[in-house]
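Thread: "does anyone have the structure for this chain?"

Original post by V.I.:
We have the sequence but no experimental structure in hand. Need at least a predicted one for the grant figures.
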Amino acid sequence: YRLGQWDLAEENFRQSLKISCETGHQQGEAVALLALGMLCRRRRQFDRAEEHFRRALELATKSSALRETLLANEFLGELALDRNDPATAVQILEPTLARAIEAAPQGDLTAELETRLGAAYLELGRIDQAREHLLKGVALAQALGDGIEQSLAERQLARIDAVRGDAAAVEAKLRAVAQCFENLHEPYELALTLMTWVLTNSACSKRG
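Reply from O.Q.:
Generated one for you, tokens below.
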């Protein structure tokens, strides 16, 4: 999946879903549906992704699977951002982050949700709130040793640097982020980082 072998990944996810359905393992069904939904997001098949996420949320709620419930809501928030609807993303992500903090304040989902909420605030132009959440996301991811999540947060922080016209900070952050994704064999995130670099350079040039 992360290496871009999407057809093979889909086959594996569907096999996992089939086994979970046959054995009546609702939490397993939810996990497989979340994976399929993420794959649809990568393919820009947003309606199909939403169907998978909402079904996963239903199953996770029924089986009292908190982690999968939080993940389903996180992914629905990301999907709202994909659809250029940051207001809806905030409505989803704020209460989800609160639940994650209550369950595990230093946990990986809390780190992810801090970053996703920060990204949503950034899209709304609420820079100070965005920066506050993104810095928390960076700190938590760093403490957990999660280079991918730390880099995702740093990429959003670089966008804030661009808004402020700090070209040097933008370059430093995005160079490090790109190197991280290259080292971790994350071609999709690397491509998004390079695109962000182009867009932020353009923004800094206009301010200059």
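V.I.: this helps a lot. The chain has a mean pLDDT of 94.
O.Q.: and Residues 118 and 130 are 4 Å apart (CA to CA).
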